[in-house]
Every structure is written in C-alpha cells, then in structure tokens.
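Tip: read the tokens left to right.
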C-alpha cells in the first residue's frame, strides 16, 4: 500500500492544478445542489417494527382522525391566586384564536372536556395539528404565541408546550470555535502560517463538500435535523487531524534534505497509510450502525462515514497538491516567538520523549494510577438512565418547561406523558364489550390515575383509550405500567397495543439496548482484524480494544454525573435541565469514539512499530516512536476536543450531549489511554507485544504501513548539505 500511496502523492504534487480544480468543482457542485435541491430536516423519531410504531400505523390506517402521528400542543391556563379558572372572554378569545391558527385540526375546549384541576385554578386545552411535529411551520408556532396574549393581558398565567412547539433546528456557528482553536494549535505546532493554513484549508473544502452533498440529498430523502450537524462535527475534526499528520511527516522529510516532490511521496506513503487505516476504523464504526436497524441512527452513521471518506481522500490528494504550490515555504513564514519545526530532527529534547521515558521506567505504577482514575470516573455509569428529550428538560425559563410544571402541579406528573392504548377489536364478536373490558382492566393496574372511555373509529373495529399514569413520563413506574398493559391477556379476541411519546421512548431504549452487543461485536471484530493487519500483532489490537472500553465507561460516567445528576450543570449551561441521557447517544458515542480512539492508536503505535521493525530495542522503540508521534497526536487531540466542545453550546439536546461526550472521550482516550496506558503496557510487554503466530503471519497480507518497501526500493535520503563558508 505504501508504494501505491507514494505514487498517488507524487501524482497529486505534479498535477496539482488539475487536482485542485477537481476538488473545487466538487465543492461548487455541492453548494449548487444544496441551494437548489435541499429539503427540510426532521426532528421526529420512529423505529419500524416496535409495538408503539405498529400501533401508530394501525391508528393511521383505521383511525386517521385520531392523529397518532400528528403534532400536538398543550395550552395551560392558570387563574390568579385566590381565583378559579372560568370560561371568561379572554380565555374564550384565546381558544378561538387557537382554532383559527395555521395547520390546526382541532382544539379540545378545557371546559367541555372537564380538563380542570381539582382546585379549579388550572386547565389545559389540547391542540391537534394536521401535520407531524417536524412539519409545523414557524408561522404556526408564532400564531400560538399570539393567541395566548389576550388571556395573559387579563392576568392569567398561560404557558404552552408539546412536540408542535419544539424549537426549530437553528444552525449555530459553533464550528467556528473549533476552527479558531485548531488554527491556534496548528500555529503553535508548526510555528508557520503556511504550514498551519494548509490543513485548515483542505479540511474546510472537504467538510464543505460532505455537508453540502448531504444537504442536497435531503431533497430526496428524509434527513434528521441532527444528521448534517453530526457529519460536520466529525468531518471537521478528522479532516484537520489527517491533514495535520501528513503535513507533519512532509516537514520531517523536507528537514532530511529531500526535494518537495519526493518528500510528499514519502509522507503520503508512510503517514498516508496510517491515515487510510485510521479512516477505515472510523468508517467501520459509523457504517456499522446499520446493524442496530434504526433508520435515523443508520442515517447519521452513514452521513458521518461519508464525510470521513471525503476527509481521507482530501488528505491523500488535495493536501499534496496544495503542498505542490507551497513547496519548502511550509518551513518558512516563521511566527516570532514560536520555534515550531521538528524538535526530534533538530536534536532537541521534547516533553513527549521525557514523558515516555518516565512512563517506561515506572510502567506498572503509571498503569495502575490511570486505570484506577478512569474506573473512578466510570462509577456514575452504573446509574445510567435512557430516554428521549421532552419539555421536562427544557430551559427553566422557557414556556415549554413552565407548561410542564403547571400541568404536574395541577393534575399530576402523569398528565405530561399520556399513553395511547389501541384496542384492535376487528376479530372480536363484540368490539364494544371488548374495549370496555380492556378499559376496566387497565383501571385496575397500579400507577393509573385515569382511563378515558373508549372512542371508536367509524368502522367500529378499533377503539382508542387515553391512560394517564400517576408518575412522570420517564419514571420506572410508568415504564412498568406500559409493560403491564402490553402483558394483559387479550379480551374476547381483541388485541391491545400501546403507543404515544412515552411508549415510543421506552421502545427506542429497549431496541438500542438489545442492539448494543451485536453492534459492539461487529465493530470490535472488524477493527481487531484491521489492526492485526496494521501492527502484525495480537496483543496490540487487544490492548487497543481494552483501552477503548476504559474510555467509553469513563465517558458514560461523566455523562451521567453532568446531564443526569446535574454536577457542574451551571458550568455547561444546563442548570435545571437534567434528565435521562438521550437513548441513542450511548450506541452512537460508542461507534464514534471507537473510530477516533483507533485513529490515535494507529498514529502513535505505527511509529513505535516502525522503530521496532528497524531493529530498535523494545523500550527504545516505545520511547522513540512515542516522541515522534506525541507532538502530532497532542495537537490532533486538542483540535478534536475543541471542535467537539463547540457543539456543547448547541440548542439541540442530542448535539449538546454528543459534543460533551465526544470532547471528553477524545481527551481521555488521547491523554490517558493512548499517551499513558499504551506506552506503559508496551513497556511491560516488551518484544511480546509484537508476537504473531507464524501461520497467521503467512495468512495475513502485508499492508506495509511503516513504508518498509519504500525504504528498500527508493534511494537513501541524502545527507543535508553543509552551508558554504561566507567569504
């Protein structure tokens, strides 16, 4: 592989104008496609095959007027202290305005529906829309805000919530934070404006192509609102990292006296091989999300994997082409006060070499401290709870959160998570008796506050019951109630199913939990084989996988502590917004973190193996390999952490939690696992780290990541010329 990549790098260098034009043409096509073809993104979650989805599909087929998938809003009224809520003109005016608002199908009057709290102060109107939650327009949401003004002006407290009132996905320029930090880190690393600018330029072009292509596809396929943001987040991080790795190797080759074209070829042939395999591990982890069989999760994974493929291609072709224009100037343009350059080539002692020496002298003690520290951070993960975001986790000063709390105070927490029980009585000889018997049986279950009388469809073969739990939507008691209803025996050949937002959340959590083991088996198995090819070892891939598991459990522990328990919530701007961790986050985080963790494993350990292959003693190979790679891996980790941290500012809960989780996972994996645990374990294993049975060595193809073929077939690097004495 190294030979082919060497040729590719030299080709891109020589045909630099052609290569740059091709990539700029793709970027222009992506921008044009995004501007003309893109469609709206969706915020909803659905999982085909679950009971809640089957029940919703049945309602849509037989009972479309029930609006199983339709958006809903709840308008909560509360009379001033000492008064009771009555059908006054301001309240009536608000209800009339709601009924006339855009996209509204019907409004349930709180006075006719008797939706008034026992103390008479609080009531709510249920608004059902003609469209799904993601199709509710900003104009329709603004109409609700305008409709409540008469009642508010009359002294009533009026708040509103529900999925119809979800904030529209707003694009925030959080990526600018990451790019800004990346620029500073690259300047410090290279000490040169040109060397720092080229990785940023190539990354921006690559991410632009990936994100605009995804946006154009949204005109033909339903794309979730989080999909392009996650693709941007991951694509930007890996694009800068891959370009950084090749740029660093190119500057090293130049410093040995090579001409720019030859230096590019050797950089792409060696560092480019590591980039290819690092990218493959990320793509395997992301594309492997298809085994979960959840459409929106598969979509996120494939979109992010697409941007990673673009990042690898950009690093192997566009960056060498840009280096063709820059030549040796990547070594110039020095910034005053920054040394930059390659300290190893200059013979300077580095912090990386000193750290590696410290770790390899005391490997067991360092290993124990690192593992105990990560294990302690992982303890909160034992209390991990999963769910979907709702109004209970909205900002404390938002109207959605206030409406949620008013309903809980006036009616009980269960009113915020009603269950829709569908009775399919088509095969029953007496559908009405079957539905009535089902309602009576549900009333007798624990944790039930109210069950509405059965409402039948025009055909009389399907009934709908609304069940109000006594507990909140995300509590274990409500989950147990859903399970109990689903476990009830059929009444007179009538089948019972449960749907609604709470049931959907439970089904998503169960489906994701069941898919976790198959998914882990797939990505770990494939990546283990890939790492065996790269490192020609069994123990190194095993160590890499165990280190990844340490990173993941520690990250989950921090997620629980911050987002579920509320530790340091004020620091991250989520004070008063704690709740269950979003149910799809763990499995997606596992995929992304596994890919990124293997990136650092490959970047760091390939240099150790390179030294080992060239005959260095085990400890020397670890120290020398670490010292060569540590500076680049440190810069890459800081850049990735900064890129992901910027997304903590997002208004979307999923993106905010994903940004926090990825930023912390990258920092822990890079600085604790890869740069502490890895050299410690390598020092303890010695030559055994590179053990591979002979029969397996013969079976595995030689991918030559270290570029040994290049060293044998290419002429030796000339010694740097001594400067002529001045006359």
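Filled-in amino acids:
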């Amino acid at each position: 592989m190294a030979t082919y990549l060497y040729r590719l790098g030299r080709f891109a260098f020589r045909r630099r104008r052609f290569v740059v034009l091709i990539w700029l043409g793709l970027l222009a096509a992506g921008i044009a496609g995004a501007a003309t073809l893109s469609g709206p993104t969706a915020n909803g979650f659905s999982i085909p095959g679950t009971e809640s989805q089957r029940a919703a599909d049945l309602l849509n087929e037989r009972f479309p007027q029930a609006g199983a998938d339709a958006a809903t809003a709840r308008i909560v009224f509360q009379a001033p202290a000492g008064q009771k809520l009555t059908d006054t003109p301001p309240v009536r005016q608000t209800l009339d305005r709601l009924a006339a608002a855009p996209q509204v199908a019907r409004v349930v009057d709180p006075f006719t529906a008797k939706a008034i709290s026992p103390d008479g102060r609080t009531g709510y109107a249920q608004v059902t829309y003609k469209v799904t939650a993601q199709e509710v327009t900003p104009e329709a949401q603004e109409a609700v805000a305008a409709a409540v003004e008469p009642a508010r002006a009359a002294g009533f407290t009026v708040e509103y919530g529900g999925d119809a009132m979800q904030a529209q996905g707003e694009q925030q320029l959080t990526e600018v934070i990451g790019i800004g930090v990346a620029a500073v880190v690259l300047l410090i690393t290279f000490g040169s404006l040109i060397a720092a600018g080229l990785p940023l330029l190539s990354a921006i072009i690559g991410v632009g192509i990936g994100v605009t292509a995804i946006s154009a596809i949204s005109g033909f396929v339903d794309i979730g609102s989080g999909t392009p943001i996650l693709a941007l987040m991951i694509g930007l991080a890996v694009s800068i990292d891959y370009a950084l790795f090749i740029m660093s190797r190119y500057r090293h080759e130049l410093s040995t006296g090579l001409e720019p074209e030859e230096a590019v070829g050797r950089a792409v042939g060696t560092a480019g091989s590591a980039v290819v395999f690092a990218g493959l591990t990320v793509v395997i982890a992301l594309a492997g999300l298809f085994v979960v069989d959840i459409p929106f999760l598969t979509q996120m994974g494939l979109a992010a994997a697409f941007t990673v493929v673009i990042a690898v291609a950009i690093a192997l072709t566009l960056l060498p082409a840009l280096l063709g224009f820059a030549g040796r100037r990547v070594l110039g343009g020095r910034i005053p006060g920054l040394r930059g350059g390659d300290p190893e080539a200059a013979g300077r002692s580095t912090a990386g070499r000193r750290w590696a020496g410290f770790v390899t002298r005391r490997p067991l003690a360092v290993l124990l401290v690192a593992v105990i520290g990560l294990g302690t951070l992982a303890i909160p993960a034992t209390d991990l709870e999963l769910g979907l975001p709702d109004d209970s986790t909205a900002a404390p000063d938002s109207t959605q959160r206030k409406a949620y709390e008013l309903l809980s105070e006036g009616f009980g927490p269960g009113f915020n998570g009603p269950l829709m029980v569908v009775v399919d009585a088509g095969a029953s000889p007496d559908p009405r008796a079957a539905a009535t018997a089902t309602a009576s049986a549900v009333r007798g279950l624990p944790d039930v506050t109210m069950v509405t009388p059965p409402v039948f469809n025009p055909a009389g073969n399907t009934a709908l019951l609304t069940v109000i739990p006594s507990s909140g939507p995300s509590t274990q008691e409500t989950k147990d109630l859903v399970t109990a209803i689903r476990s009830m025996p059929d009444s007179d050949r009538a089948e019972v199913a449960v749907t609604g937002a709470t049931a959907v959340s439970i089904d998503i959590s169960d489906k994701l939990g069941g898919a976790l083991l198959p998914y882990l088996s797939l990505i770990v198995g494939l990546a283990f084989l890939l790492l065996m090819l790269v490192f020609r070892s069994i123990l190194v891939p095993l160590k890499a996988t165990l280190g990844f598991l340490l990173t993941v459990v520690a990250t989950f522990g921090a997620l629980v502590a911050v987002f579920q328990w509320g530790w340091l919530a004020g620091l991250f701007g989520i004070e008063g917004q704690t709740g269950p961790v979003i149910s799809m986050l763990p499995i997606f985080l596992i995929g992304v973190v596994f890919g990124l963790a293997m990136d650092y494993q490959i970047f760091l350990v390939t240099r150790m193996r390179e030294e080992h292959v060239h005959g260095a003693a085990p400890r020397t190979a670890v120290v020398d390999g670490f010292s060569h790679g540590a500076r680049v891996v440190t810069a890459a980790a800081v850049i990735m952490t900064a890129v992901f941290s910027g997304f903590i500012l997002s208004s979307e809960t999923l993106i905010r939690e994903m940004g926090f989780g990825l930023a912390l996972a990258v920092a822990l994996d890079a600085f604790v696992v890869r740069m502490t645990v890895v050299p410690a374990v390598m020092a303890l294993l010695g030559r055994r780290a590179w053990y591979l049975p002979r029969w397996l060595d013969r079976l595995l193809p030689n991918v030559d990541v270290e570029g040994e073929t290049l060293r044998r077939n290419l002429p030796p690097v000339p010694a740097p010329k001594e400067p002529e004495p001045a006359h």
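The chain is about 60% helix and 5% strand. The longest helix spans residues 501-535.
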